[in-house]
Design goal:
two-stranded parallel ribbon; 185 residues; globular; 44% helix; 3-stranded parallel sheet; 5 strands; 9 helices; Rossmann fold; mainly alpha; 10% strand
C-alpha cells in the first residue's frame, strides 16, 4: 500500500462522492507470475495501517479470507450476494482497464460490474477505448486524478537496495515493513 494508492482512493472518495472506498488486497493475485513476497496477512495489515486515519477508506478482507486465487468476478458476485441492497463500483486504474480482456471471466465481469476508471501516471484512456474493450457506458465512468507516480515495484526495489521508502508509503506502513523485515534482499 503506497502513497499513490492512498491519493487515488482519497480523490475518488471526494471527487466521485463515494461514501466508502474499500481497499481489497488479494490473497494470491492471479495475474502475477511469482507469488508476492509479503504474505496475504502482511499485505492486509499494511492496508489496515495505511487507512487507519483515513475517513471513508476501509481495508476489506474479502479476498484474503477467501484464500486461494481470487478473481475479481468472484468478489463482485460475493459482494452482490452479501450486500444485495448495496451498489458497488469497481475502481480501476486505466492501466488495469486496458488489460481487462485478459481477466478471468472478463465478459461476465463487464456485464455484471459497474466501473469507475481513473487515469494512472503515464497512462490514460479514452471513453471510446473503454467501449471497444466492452465497458458499458451506462455502468462506467471515467475520472481524471492527480496522483503521484509511484509503483509498488519502486518500493520493493528501494527496500532491496536498503534505500528509504519514507516518501513512497505512509509512516505506519514503512515501520511495519522494517519491523517485519519485508522485501529485504
Amino acid at each position: 500500500m503506497h502513497n499513490g494508492h492512498l491519493a487515488a482512493a482519497r480523490q475518488l472518495r471526494d471527487e466521485v462522492g463515494l461514501e466508502q472506498v474499500w481497499l481489497v488486497p488479494n490473497a494470491h493475485p492471479p495475474h502475477r507470475s511469482a507469488a508476492p513476497v509479503a504474505s496475504p496477512e502482511d499485505r492486509m495489515r499494511m492496508v489496515e495501517l495505511a487507512v487507519a486515519e483515513q475517513p471513508g477508506l476501509l481495508a476489506s478482507r474479502i479476498e484474503v479470507d477467501r484464500n486461494g486465487i481470487s478473481y475479481t468476478i468472484d468478489t463482485v458476485r460475493e459482494l452482490a450476494r452479501t450486500f444485495p441492497a448495496q451498489r458497488f463500483e469497481l475502481l480501476l486504474g486505466s492501466d488495469a482497464a486496458l488489460q481487462i480482456r485478459g481477466w478471468h471471466e472478463a465478459d461476465a465481469l463487464l456485464k455484471e460490474g459497474s466501473f469507475t476508471i481513473f487515469n494512472r501516471p503515464d497512462t490514460s484512456i479514452a471513453l471510446s477505448t473503454l467501449q471497444e474493450l466492452g465497458f458499458s457506458p451506462a455502468r462506467t465512468r471515467l475520472v481524471h486524478l492527480d496522483t503521484p507516480a509511484i509503483a509498488a515495484h519502486q518500493v520493493r526495489d528501494r527496500l532491496r537496495r536498503g534505500a528509504s521508502i519514507d516518501d513512497l508509503v505512509p509512516a505506519q506502513v514503512a515501520g511495519y515493513i522494517r519491523v517485519h523485515g519485508l522485501y529485504q534482499a
